[in-house]
Amino acid sequence: xxxxxxxASATRRRLLAEAGVDAEARPAPIDERVLEAPLLRAGATPRxxxxxxxxxxxxxxxxxxxxALVIGADQTLDLDGEGMTKPSDTDAxxxxxxxxxxxxxxxxxxxxxxxxxxxxxxxxxxPTLTMRKLAPEDIARYLAAVGExxxxxxxxxxxxxxxxxxxxxxDGDFFAIxxxxxxxxxxxxxxxxxxx
Length: 196
Known about the structure:
Strand content: 15-25%
Oligomer: single chain
Radius of gyration: 17 Å
Structural class: alpha+beta
Distance between the termini: 13 Å
CATH class: Alpha Beta
């Protein structure tokens, strides 16, 4: 059975490849901010939004690739009930890091699988991360070191790289923190006879 990852995320592609899962990467033809806007107006939580976007990606791509099993994934950052998105520029990244400094936040990592326009399975995990107290000069040094990479993920950090130095505590699944709850996904793929 053809397996498709409805994502442009290099990290998600790498996680699947390193787990020995052969999936074609095909980014979903959706605008996340357009889909998110009515959810926000309706009072959806960051967790709800992650699930909705993962499902929307899986559904849209499954309709474009008949017969394939499609994996959609999304992640939102939840700071005391307020969602954050990827920073648009270095100043926005600085502002996000200042807000996260010395506080705990959740990363809601959702995954959904669809075939032919029907959701077959979905799952969400919500690890908690506690950032150490950062001085403005700490943030400036970090942003100078990581450059444009700060703009590629919500929260302006990549835990698998230099971003780990920003934290004092992490509670939850590492793969979910990276944006793909891999163990539950592998269990589902085994149930579908896609992997062993």
